[in-house]
Amino acid sequence: MTLWLVFVSVAFATAVESGTINSTDQSTSAQVTVKQTEQQESIVEQLAEDVMATGDLNPSHYPAQRAAKVVQHHLNTRFGSPYKVFGLRTVNSGYAEDVENSGRRYKLELTVQEFLSNSSVKCSAEVFFPTEKGQGAPQVDVTGEDFQKINASEEEEALYQKYKANTELLSADHLPDSHGHMEPEMKPFWHLGSVASSFVMLQESTEETLYNMAQVANVTQLETEKEQLQFDYHVLLHDMVSQEIIHWKLLVTWSPAEGVKVPQMTKLPHRHQ
Hints:
It is a single chain. By secondary structure, the protein is an alpha+beta fold. It has helices at residues 2-6, 8-18, 26-50, 62-79, 153-164, 187-204, and strands at 55-57, 86-99, 103-114, 119-130, 139-144, 171-175, 211-222, 229-239, 244-255, 259-267. Strands 1-2-3-4-5 form a five-stranded antiparallel beta sheet. A five-stranded antiparallel beta sheet has the order 6-7-8-9-10. The longest helix has 25 residues, at 26-50.
């Protein structure tokens, strides 16, 4: 039950991306929200107990899943695009060890999935969490199959040329909307927001967090004379441990040649939901 509740927002985001959630699912979503609220306290307590687990890990439990999510964010920052978004499919095995006076290292065997092509890739990964706060993002090392073999170059080039030549700059709100819906032409910008959010979630991840992007509140294309397209993103991130929704402002650049970059990221003041 705990695992289902913890990862329900991941399942929701995936369902939205695939287009399977619509207005008829509102009542179900509301029921899920009630269950999450009722059991939040016990979930957080159980997760806290699992944080410092060492040795062989249960692949379904929080420590292995948390470290694997960091691998997902790492892959998105390196290989993601409006037509390539990586997510966690399964953790096959996990191992954790304390590194004296410096942090904890996780060793994982996992399968990641590129959502749009539905392609699966097996890999091995090491994730190191520094003990002291302020020591930077978790360190991630991934080995395995070639993540660049998933080719979306034609779609990327077509999108790039369309918005490079656009005389009316793009602007959109609420991707997805309150019913889990978005127009098909906006999906690449939801994907781009997901990839850009991984830069933040990778930077902010610790052994006590588990992040997922909940929504693109707003995306606005910016004028630029550079080759990269530029966008101003306002995204909502969900920390599934604290249940907090966190607002971030991101400056995002993208071109097929240069990939996705996030030269500026600003955490916005807390807002009452």
